[in-house]
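For reproducibility, we list the full input for the iron/sulfur cluster complex.
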Amino acid sequence: MAGIYIHIPYCRHKCSYCNFYSTASATYRNVIADMILTELDLRKSFLSEEINSIYFGGGTPSVLPVSDINKILKSVYNEFDVSPDVEITFEANPDDLDINYLSELKKIGINRISIGIQSFFEQDLAYLERVHKAERIPEVMNAIIQSGYDNINADLIYGIPGQTELMVEQNLNWLTEYPVNHISAYALTVEPGTALQVQIKKKIKPETDEAVLSSHFLRVSKLLTKTGFEHYEISNFAIAGKYSKHNTSYWFQEPYLGLGPSAHSYDGYSRRWNANSVQKYIDTIKQNKLREEVEILSLVQKFNEFIMLRLRTQWGIDMQEVARKFGAEWHNDLRKAVQQIQQPDKIKFKNNKLILTPLGFLYADGLASELFRD
Ligand code: SF4
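The corresponding predicted structure, in tokenized form, follows.
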């Protein structure tokens, strides 16, 4: 199984906290789909596996007309062996969507919508500098449902300064009134180089608080689990086994091809990525060339990534798989490293799998690093 990720690097406005590669300028927006088609042609031999996930992300794919999305999708079908059960996700922002656009997307084969709600509270959206208004959310959610989508993800953000636990709870209550079967709930992180980092430094905006982030995280986990969602990855919750195929394949280190500026690809041996620049991307692709950086992964890097990614999930680290993939010595070393941690409230063995508890999810990065090899 393999996936294809298409990065549409345009947004109507740059949100203050965002560190994804995207631009608020519309330069080359009318040709980006054609450039992606050229890149797809140049990279079509990268994957030989059946495609079970196609993901339009960004940036904001919903800034493009449906005709652009359609031609990219058609080309994927022409060049790859696409599974009949393929999940085709489309990321969208509430301000772009209406029933016509959504219905057209459905007609061309999009079968999963991922909507960036973030919060139902205007004060949170203002802090994040999101473009959409909270009052628009019900209209958009109803349009998604009326257009016939039954596979819907919504993104939420918690830990926003000024956001109380009651507001977090209210966000979850309002959201789960809609038939969403997947929720990605992220802690607000202040990434280097973002506008938010500067605003906090200049005291224009209040800063996030680690203790608040932790208590919001535990609250979200508890409430969604009570509502019937599985907390299957640190930031992801699904109902009725509707895990995101796109994200799950990433955590299980399956191969994927990334297209578009800044997109990453992975084939099990190497990782390669395009420049974080629309201009550089267009200049190179126009010459029928690829401009990418490549990193060949060592066995230690693969092991450490395996540990880090699997620990993020409810399935954890299968110790038999460790022995099979990395040998008996590394398997035994890992067991010894776990014994030294001795924090059963955070990390434990269950049926020969090493898993994190909900509390352990909060410390996932630190715990994973204690298990890494040098
Ligand atoms: S809409 Fe998404 S990708 Fe675009 S700036 Fe905001 S957070 Fe970043």
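The first helix runs from residue 32 to 43. Residues 165 and 216 are 6 Å apart (CA to CA). Both points were considered when choosing residues for closer inspection.
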